[in-house]
Amino acid sequence: MFASVFSAAISGMEVHLIKVEADVSDGLPSFTMVGLPSTQVKEAQDRVRTALKNNGIALPPKRITVNLAPADIRKEGAGFDLPLAAAVLAAAGVLAAEQLGNVMMAGEIGLNGEIHAVSGILPMIIRAREEKCRFCVVPYDNLKEAHLIPDMKVIGVSNLQEMIRYVSVPDSYKKPVEKGKKISQENPADFCEIHGQESLKRAVEIAVSGFHNLLMIGPPGAGKTMIARRIPGIMPELTVEEGLELTKIYSIAGLLPAEDPLIRIRPFRSPHHTCSAQALAGGGRNPRPGEITLAHRGVLFLDEMPEFSRRSLEILRQPLEDKVIHISRVYGTYDFPAHFMLCAAMNPCPCGYYPDMNRCRCTPAQVGQYLGKLSQPLLDRLDLCADVSPVDFDGMSNGKIGENTKQVRMRVEAAQQIQRERFKDEKIQFNGEMSGKQVENFCHLDDSAGRLLKMAFQHMPFSARAYHRILKVARTIADMDASETINKEHLGEALSYRSFDKKYWN
């Protein structure tokens, strides 16, 4: 007897609908699985057989064949356990085959028949809705995540017996009443906790307003990490579409919080400097999102940037330009979104105190070697560099409370609203995303700013990429002043954030 049910396979960010076909026929007792299953998927037959036996359901001593179609897509993960069990039960006559028609299932089965949560449920439900499936059956622990898609019927099951009961009579299922308070995802860190560092705060506000990449250079303990962790708080709230997009990414990565699965705040990812290139970019035999994708629509913070391996840093160059990371494997090429704001912090030398010759213990060769870990092509992709000085005693002890996060965010939102209006007919949102052609169209200088730019270009030779990034930053500063034209003051401030080339890398 033949039966089939739908499941899903995740390849990168894509979800493929998989038809799980089962046939129970006369012949020597065997259990064969075909259709390019991974080792983990092949192990499902032992889990399913044992789980059924422990629930009082014995498979007939016949030839059982399972096919996962299409056969050219590799199937990974334990999510095929539940559809495999359902298809085999229908083929064996325990379930009616027509009850599985146009139904999608995913879930891992324990040896006692319990259904365990799996990653990637949200994108699977979205794909099932696109394919107009009648309903979906998922683990009960994935139910909150699945219910983020309101116009799709989803049944949550805790064990095999519930799956059999609800598939046989879908109308008998009642959606559970959600209890408990919604967990806040708000960032408690506030800008007003930072003493002094007004110039650094200004650079951060500019960077966030235009979604520019930022590098902070200064001695240890100056507040670089402290201010970086407060950046998500001054970024505008996620839109509904952005929240679902991020939730989909974190679902595939298996990082969604169980109690409140919808991502509501912009991510802040801070990988350790020992992070491998693969962990940063994403990968694996069946590629999964890396740190740069987990920072999508948010902040990727690289503390002690020169301590990262050269390979890890150079991987950033392509996604910083394209806002997407391409990963090639034998089975195909996978694209992951990588539209993040890069915020990096570093000391100017191994001891951290250069160019203060009274405190710096490093030789010129050591300083040069340390700074040389950052290539010029990577530096060109950084829009702003803020020189961070330590806060003096008066700045720490005066008790003055600066602007709070809400006040700064209001200014950021105002500047970004100007950009959204400007780019409403373009495929971008922020100044930091402009192409060379768009820079020419939208970055208009007045006469004094034009003369200043020419003079700066003659005295501080820039690459074409650095030239465009200076204009992008100047455009953002002008937007913060609600000015249609970039004037001399706007351009001068933008140029000041490129002086690090001459100070440290000359």
UniProtKB/TrEMBL annotation:
Domain Mg chelatase-related protein C-terminal residues, every copy: 402-498
Family matches, as InterPro entries: CHLI-like (IPR045006), Mg_chelat-rel (IPR004482), Mg_chelat-rel_C (IPR025158), Mg_chelatse_chII-like_cat_dom (IPR000523), P-loop_NTPase (IPR027417), Ribosomal_Su5_D2-typ_SF (IPR020568), Ribsml_uS5_D2-typ_fold_subgr (IPR014721)
One Pfam short name: ChlI
Gene3D superfamilies reported in the protein's UniProt record: 3.30.230.10, P-loop containing nucleotide triphosphate hydrolases (3.40.50.300)
UniProt domain Magnesium chelatase ChlI-like catalytic: residue ranges: 190-392
Identification of the protein by name: YifB family Mg chelatase-like AAA ATPase
Upper lineage: Bacteria, Bacillati, Bacillota, Clostridia, Lachnospirales
